[in-house]
From TrEMBL:
<dbReference type="InterPro" id="IPR011335">
    <property type="entry name" value="Restrct_endonuc-II-like"/>
</dbReference>
<keyword id="KW-0255">Endonuclease</keyword>
<protein>
    <submittedName>
        <fullName>T/G mismatch-specific endonuclease</fullName>
    </submittedName>
</protein>
<keyword id="KW-0227">DNA damage</keyword>
<keyword id="KW-0234">DNA repair</keyword>
<comment type="similarity">
    <text>Belongs to the Vsr family.</text>
</comment>
<feature type="region of interest" description="Disordered">
    <location>
        <begin position="1"/>
        <end position="26"/>
    </location>
</feature>
<dbReference type="GO" id="GO:0004519">
    <property type="term" value="F:endonuclease activity"/>
</dbReference>
<dbReference type="InterPro" id="IPR004603">
    <property type="entry name" value="DNA_mismatch_endonuc_vsr"/>
</dbReference>
<keyword id="KW-0540">Nuclease</keyword>
<keyword id="KW-0378">Hydrolase</keyword>
<dbReference type="Pfam" id="PF03852">
    <property type="entry name" value="Vsr"/>
</dbReference>
Length: 146
């Protein structure tokens, strides 16, 4: 990113908060992984599913070609919980919209390569998210058996 388009924290506290945000191994990911594991599902984590451009799934059932992404409400613009910051508003709006566009591009590229993409919001209860993932995984398994 060019220096002119970088976000400049509005305060030392804002800078601290930005630096503390996890990109992987979030609490939502851990909860989903625990629930899937308890259901007997085995997966790989932080799997590169595309190389150019590089995209990494939070979870993947590689043999079944199922990629799972756990999207944070702020970073991916959750329609239920997204907020628009007042500080650096133009930058953050562009950033979140670019994230959403990248998500759509990732989904399209993966589908074109035969992957099934599952996106869950970080705010979703782990049980519900796991049911969504497990349903897709089971359908893919049935399809392979047929």
């Amino acid at each position: 990113m060019a220096a002119s388009s970088r976000a400049v924290p509005s305060s030392a506290e804002a800078r601290r908060r930005m630096q503390s945000v996890r990109q992987k191994n979030t609490s939502a990911e851990f909860a989903l992984r625990r629930e899937l594991h308890a259901r007997g599902l085995r997966y790989r984590i932080h799997v590169p599913v595309l190389t150019k451009p590089r995209r990494v799934a939070d979870l993947a059932f590689s043999g079944l070609r199922v990629a799972v992404f756990v999207d944070g409400c702020f970073w991916h613009g959750c329609p239920q919980h997204a907020t628009w910051p007042k500080q650096n508003a133009e930058f953050w709006r562009a950033k979140i919209l670019a994230n959403q566009q990248r998500d759509r591009d990732t989904d399209e590229r993966l589908r074109a390569e035969g992957w099934k993409v599952v996106r869950v919001w970080a705010h979703e209860p782990a049980e519900r998210a796991a049911t969504k993932v497990a349903t897709v995984v089971e359908k893919r398994r049935e399809k392979l058996r047929a």
